[in-house]
Design brief:
Oligomer: single chain
Strand order of the largest sheet: 1-3-2
Structural class: alpha+beta
Shape: elongated
Radius of gyration: 18 Å
Strand content: 5-15%
Distance between the termini: 68 Å
Length: 82
């Protein structure tokens, strides 16, 4: 039995799921934030459905970080008063 949803999505499909523009999805793929593959001679991009779900989960996890915690500073980093 074939899967109910396609394994690979076009950038337009991803844009529809995320409710953003195709240009924004292209930027996510080019930056590496969202993993995709280039196929064909014309270099069309495809994003695997699992990769999109992983990206969404990472964004939720990122949103759960308390505002007062600096992402770039380890939580156990102590600043000394000199």
């Amino acid at each position: 039995m074939p899967p109910t949803s396609p394994r690979f999505l076009t950038l337009a499909d991803v844009a529809e799921v995320l409710n953003v523009t195709v240009r924004q999805v292209y930027a996510l793929v080019r930056s590496g934030d969202l993993r995709g593959i280039q196929i064909g001679g014309r270099g069309q991009w495809r994003v695997e459905n699992d990769q999109l779900e992983d990206y969404i989960a990472r964004q939720y996890a990122r949103a759960e970080v308390p505002d007062h915690v600096d992402e770039h500073m380890p939580a156990d980093d102590v600043t000394s008063d000199r």
